[in-house]
Amino acid sequence: MVRTRTVISQAHGFQWLGSFGNRGNGLYREELRQGLSAISRYLAVHQFPCERCLLRLDGQYGMGTVLADLAGFAFVTRGKEYTVLDHSLVQACLHLPADQFQQRPESQIVRRLYDCPQVSVGPAGVLYRVVVATHPEGRKKSPVGVTREGTVYELFFTNLPQQAFTASDVVELYLHRGTFEPQLSDEDKEQDPDRWCSHSA
């Protein structure tokens, strides 16, 4: 049997705020609501205003219908709704020079970043800031994004203001998860994974 976990970690203090598991791909929207409740309680206990909280969400949540559940939290996530690429505002941005270029130290990929504010996302048409990252198609199929005519397009959704966070800031906030994944590894060593996952021959 396969199980999926949703975990919440406070990035700066390495504090675990919640862990939820369900069979298969999980109940990610229900788990997201549980996670938001845990975060709200944490903020209340420590007397932190909601405005000081930034959620970094996995791409599983990168759809307009799911983002509507975030109840006013600031967020950054990878987008899954690639129909956004056909939006007239996004197409207009893509025909202009890139706003910024971005490259991570461990990668040879140089991304061109296009910052598109106030783009309608999802069936409800909620407006979000969309950052489009593009790079040439490689020899292997890209594991993320969508490829069109030799170019890989990645989407990043956020509600962070342009005047405070550049397009590169948004992408870096999403991609810089290196401090988070070792936490998951440490937790797996500390607890027996057989308690929450199993398999049959």
Task: Describe the protein's architecture and organization.
This protein starts with a strand and ends in an 11-residue tail after the last helix. The strands form 2 sheets. Strands 3, 4, 5, 6, 7, 8 and 9 form a 7-stranded mixed β-sheet that branches. The chain has helices at 28-45, 64-67, 88-94, 167-175, 181-190; strands at 3-10, 15-23, 54-57, 74-78, 100-102, 111-121, 126-136, 146-148, 151-158. The chain has 2 domains: 1-52, no CATH class; 55-179, no CATH class. The protein is built from 5 helices and 9 strands; from the N terminus they run ββαβαβαβββββαα.
Summarize the structure.
This protein has 201 residues and is an alpha+beta fold. 24% of the residues lie in helices and 31% in strands.
**Largest sheet entry:** 7 strands, mixed
Overall 3D form: globular
Straight-line distance between termini = 10 Å
Write the element-wise H/E pattern from the N-terminal end onward: EEHEHEHEEEEEHH
Task: Kindly state the number of beta strands.
Answer: 9
> Which percent range fits the helix content?
10-25%
Number of domains: 2
**Mean pLDDT score:** 85
Q: In terms of per-residue confidence, which ranges show pLDDT below 50 for 5 or more consecutive residues? A: none
Q: Which structural class do you get from the secondary structure elements?
A: alpha+beta
Radius of gyration from the CA trace? Answer: 18 Å
